[in-house]
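URGENT: need a sanity check before tomorrow's submission.

F., can you look over the DNA-binding transcriptional LysR family regulator record below? I want to be sure the sequence and structure line up before it goes out.
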Amino acid sequence: MDIDPRRLRVLREVARRGGVMRAAEALYLTPSAVSQQLAQLEREVGLALIDRSQRSVSLTPAGRVLAGYADRVEEELDEAKRELTRFTERLAGPVRIAAFPTVIQHVLVPAMRDLAVRHPKISLIIHEIYGQPALQELRLGAVDLLITEQDMSLPTLSQPSLSTRLLYVDEYRIVVPPDWPDPPATVADLIRLPWVAGEPTQACGQALERLAGLHGFEPRKVHVITEFGPALALVAAGHGVAIVPTLALLDVPEGEVRVSEVRDVGARRLDAVTRVSRTRSGEPDPVQAVVIGAIEEATADLAASLRGRLGEPEKVD
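Structure tokens as predicted:
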């Protein structure tokens, strides 16, 4: 019998929440995805785990028994990994990380170089995915570590099953085309300008909505762009202004866009998010701890570089 621990987590949530719909909300999955995971788990164990004869979904006796083991299975697996590291002279193993492009380029790649020297048996597996899909992957165990971004004005992600660690506060800048004769100097100058906006679910999109609400204007969103590269290209070509984080400006050639004098636009926070350790000792996975340490060092080096170049704020602990 080969049981996937990720599907056990789904079964556990169904038992805890009293149904598929509530479990789906807790896991940030669709009800259909939860049902598919449960059906696959039933095939793995060869038993009916869900009673579908009633209008409301409930667990069968076998389902309740298996759900009761879910926490213990996860705890034992985590403890086993910790114990096995004692038999090796060096930490080893893969760590699967979900992140977005600017962090991959400017934080994770330098961290990988450092780990290759100090811990050559640790390998990072990077998946470019973010937002709710990435959170789903973390909850289900498909990734071990998630790097998130969100506007600093929003509450920090706080859930009992997740641990959130602040990595960096990335100040926003307003960028304008380089050849505009009268670049905006105040927020009032921005009100009637065309915007190259971010998606409302992204930190920069949230920052624009916050700025507009604070100053009482409706931004004229001519373009809505997900990635910073295309957004900056549109700004450089004269098609509007944009809010971007400082990290996005690192690879922009000098003179391609102009950084506005408008400040106090806010910042986004970058966080490292992991599942809470379920080991008996309560200690984190040692391999993940080393990886997070390398990421923090890479972030600190980047912050120092940015302070020298653009006067960025220091990392907040």
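My own read: Residues 286-310 form the longest helix (25 residues). The chain has a mean pLDDT of 84. If you see anything odd, call me.
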